[in-house]
Amino acid sequence: MSSAFVYAVTRTPFGKFNGALAGVRPDDLAATVIGGVLAQTPDLDPAAIGEVVWGNANGAGEENRNVGRMAALLAGLPTSVPGTTVNRLCGSSLDAAMMASRAIETGDAEIVLVGGVESMTRAPWVLPKPDRAFPAGDVATVSTTLGWRLVNPRMPAEWTVSLGECNEQLQERFGISRERQDEFAVRSHRLAHAAWEAGFYQPLVTPVTLPREQSLARDEGIRPDSTTEKLAGLKPSFRPDGTITAGNASPLSDGASAVLLGSEAAAATIGREPVARIIGRGAMALDPQEFGFAPVEAANRALARAGIGWEQVGAVELNEAFAVQSLACVDAWGIDPEIVNVKGGAIAIGHPLGASGGRILGTLTAVLREQRQRYGVAAICIGVGQALAVVLENLEVTR
């Protein structure tokens, strides 16, 4: 068995819902980050890429018809490079990386370009097809932006509650206060802003060209002036007496991410040395309404397969779908919260569903190198009761 290595990472800036990226198609966002990876690896002949594996959670709009293949073509990759699209909702691009790493380990591929994309702004409204032609009654359109839609009536009602209600139930289970959630959210904005100001994110981000010769080069949703006092004034979003607000949950977002993976021998073809090695993977599933807590066991399984324990982990990138579920996971792991999302998280940066797994994997790679830590964990919760996790080893420390 070979090993799978990370060679290059990039992402677009993440845009706000109806923000600067609202006019950019998701397949164009995906093509942008493919171009960003190729720009980082000028010695790589694109024809040497064995496959493109792309994550996308929606698939109902302009990204339909296999956005991984479409993005590869739009980015100018040779038509001989195959492309596929995978959907594990919020975990789609991390799933793509896990699938690609297995292909590399088994020798089925030497170089795989993975990533993910989501335009939540451009997600369409859909109409269910009628049972018979020309129905007499009205038919309602359904938004495909987020969450359940066109639910099968055979599904138990407790499984199909909103994502926010799921996390209010998690808050009740673990007693995580509104104050703790707001403090966590403020920390996310503060750290994300500081990371941009310090120049951490610039090498990891490929700007997006916009109409009228403009471009977006920085995440749109970060609020450096956020305070717990301001967040305390927001109304609960899902229950009148709830704790989850627009301020302590991730926003609707647009963006794309990409990661170039390869075998150790692929370094000669790519023209650069790898920076990290994938040494563990884990997946977990729970009752659908408990999805926010699923990263706990997903990460534990990934660490067990890597043969290390939490005491050896120096950095964690946990996608912040909601502050409450992030805090529940960190509490359950029993780790130092200060090693988690040290450059901010999805509450500040944004959560374009299909792109977030690639973002946390790329950020983790850079954090490990900056802080000279050997091992790190990237974990993400997934709607309908799932989670994924990957363990990385920093090659700069092991050399």
Topology overview:
Elements: E1 4-11, E2 15-16, H1 26-40, E3 51-55, H2 67-74, E4 83-86, H3 92-105, E5 111-119, E6 125-126, E7 142-143, H4 163-174, H5 178-197, E8 208-210, E9 214-216, H6 228-232, E10 253-262, H7 267-270, E11 276-285, H8 295-306, E12 313-318, H9 323-333, H10 346-349, H11 356-371, E13 375-382, E14 386-394, H12 395-398
Parallel strand pairs: 3-4, 3-5, 12-13
Antiparallel strand pairs: 1-10, 1-11, 2-10, 5-10, 6-7, 8-9, 11-14, 13-14
Helix pairs in contact: 1-2, 3-11
In short:
By secondary structure, this protein is an alpha+beta fold. It has helices at residues 26-40, 67-74, 92-105, 163-174, 178-197, 228-232, 267-270, 295-306, 323-333, 346-349, 356-371, 395-398, and strands at 4-11, 15-16, 51-55, 83-86, 111-119, 125-126, 142-143, 208-210, 214-216, 253-262, 276-285, 313-318, 375-382, 386-394. The chain has a domain at 4-123 and 251-394: Peroxisomal Thiolase, Chain A, domain 1.
What does this structure look like?
It contains twelve helices and 14 strands. The protein has a domain at 4-123 and 251-394: Peroxisomal Thiolase, Chain A, domain 1, CATH 3.40.47.10. The mean pLDDT is 96. It has helices spanning 26-40, 67-74, 92-105, 163-174, 178-197, 228-232, 267-270, 295-306, 323-333, 346-349, 356-371, 395-398, and strands spanning 4-11, 15-16, 51-55, 83-86, 111-119, 125-126, 142-143, 208-210, 214-216, 253-262, 276-285, 313-318, 375-382, 386-394. The protein has 399 residues and is of the alpha+beta class. The strands form three sheets. Strands 1, 2, 3, 4, 5, 10, 11, 12, 13 and 14 form a ten-stranded mixed beta sheet that branches. A two-stranded antiparallel sheet has the order 6-7. It has a two-stranded antiparallel sheet with strand order 8-9. Helix 3 (92-105) packs across helix 11 (356-371). The longest helix is centred in the middle third of the chain and has 20 residues, at 178-197. Helices cover 31% and strands 20% of the residues.
